Structure prediction request, 146 residues.
Amino acid sequence: MVDSFVEFEDVPVFRVRARMPNPGPAAAFEELESKLGTMRGRRFYGTMWMTDTGPEYHACVARVATDDPSLLQLAEGVIPGGRYARRRVPDWEKNLARLPAEFEEMIRSHSSEYDPTRPCIEFYRSQSELLMLVPVHRSAHPSTPA
Prediction:
């Protein structure tokens, strides 16, 4: 697959850390979604941070102006912006099991420019399209807005 390069803005989020490997990201998203009044108009992300003790996954939702953190009782954070290699994954729901291998392949193919200080990102653009984002150093390739 051909990857493009984008500039991604910081995204303030609420997040739930997934217990890995089980129950995993699906349970983290269920917990996150259960705290929201509605999912309509929300932007959802998954972040994978590489740590010394292994990968750390968070299910995330972008904050909106009407959110009341004291009512939601969710951890807050920011998905860091910067330059990312982007790959579109159509029909992502049918291919969930392949996503970890796709990320590994993306990191390998961008190994000389990969930036391990930022997370890999899943942006759930719609029910039918997922954007996979792998952080790369600013000097890597021209980019387009995300």
Remarks:
- DSSP finds three helices and nine strands in the chain.
- Strands lie at 4-8, 11-17, 44-51, 54-62, 75-79, 82-90, 120-124, 129-135, 144-145.
- The mean pLDDT is 89.
